[in-house]
Amino acid sequence: MNTTNCITRHMDLFENKVLPALYIFVFAVGLLLNVWGIKSLLHNWKKLRIVNILVLNLGLADMLYLLTLPFLIVYYLKGSKWTFGVPFCKITRFCSKLNLYGSIGFLTCISVYRFLGVVHPIRVKGRLTSTHSVVISVLVWIFVSAQSFPDMLFPKHSENMTGQCYDTTDLKNVERYLHYSLCWTFIGFFIPFVVTVGCYGHVTLVVCRSNTVKKHQKQQILKLMVLLLFLFSFCYAPYHVFKNMTLYARVQFTRDICPTWNSEVFIAHQASRGLVSLNSALNPLVYLNVNKDMTVQLKQLLVQGSQSFRRLFESRSSSVPVPQSEEEAVSSF
Q: Which of 17, 89, 184, 310 could bridge to 188 as Cys pair (CB 3.0-4.6 Å)?
């Protein structure tokens, strides 16, 4: 059975048009916001709280991914032709995995930190230090690196020299990769997701029932909860679901079977790849919910920007000559 059409249907539209457009947007917005966020955190380094160290590492994970996006943009704009060499292809895909599971790891740590601070404030007061946050951050990086390293052992380019740089692997190794993907989907995504939902579910109950927590503090905690759950359900969950379904479909291809649902799942998988890349542009919103100083700075920047734009607009308006009326035009001759 020939499965070529089954494999390549809609590939040109989504891989070579939609994904590059999304990546360009994520690169521009994500780079701007993450550089600003990291700069603000480093500027107030002496005032860093425990959670800010985790947020700083979240920003570093995003930067690691954002710096690889220009190469992926060129790759897809060239019709999925990788021209930067096989080793750099593996490095690029490795950085993507580090960003994905590093982001999930640090967001989960932030959720646990919020849970301890709200539900057990007396027990943890004075016991959680900056040293603990540094150690936790190092452990997250080690765990995520160990989790992502096996991905580099799989071939990332096609044997027929088409110049592709696979996000997963080639058809020859796809069944083994599916097992690897399912394993790390459970460990790297599902377990953190359950932990995050459990932490913020408990936090929500405590905050809503509490009479001592101020209204603005409740709003801040609930906003962060909604943001984290949005990131998990909107950016991470669809990617893992449709990625594994696509891998399973490719396993079927090796058995000369073309699933009837392959086309729809392929489209959904491509869309989910764009959504998961958005986490690098949305993660900076976490900065604003855990750091009051950065929120104030952002408001000041927005006010200054609007004032500068207004002055520029007024100066240009005053420099444009006012059209003469018909009578003035006649009298001028």
A: 184
Residue whose token pair is 């001028």? 332
Residue with tokens 């893992």: 240
Contact 179, 125 (CB under 8 A): no
**pLDDT interval class at 327 (50, 70, 90):** very low
Alpha-helical regions (H) of 210-261: 215-230, 237-253
- Contacts of 86-90 spanning 24+ positions with Cβ under 8 A: 86/156, 86/157, 89/156, 89/157, 89/165, 90/152, 90/156
Per DSSP, 46 falls in state G
| 47-92: pLDDT as tens digits | 656 788 888 899 999 999 999 999 999 998 888 888 888 889 999 9
Structure tokens at 281: 């542009």
Report the alpha-carbon angle 41-49-142, nearest 5.
80
pTM of the model as a whole: 0.82
- Inter-residue contact 69 to 26 (CB < 8 Å): yes
3-state secondary structure of 282: helix
Rg, the chain, Cα only: 25
Predicted pLDDT of residue 239: 94
Q: Is the sign of the CA dihedral 199, 203, 204, 209 positive or negative?
A: positive
Give the end-to-end CA distance of the chain in Å, rounded to a whole number.
85
Domains of the chain: 4-294 (1.20.1070.10)
Sign of CA dihedral 113, 117, 123, 124: positive
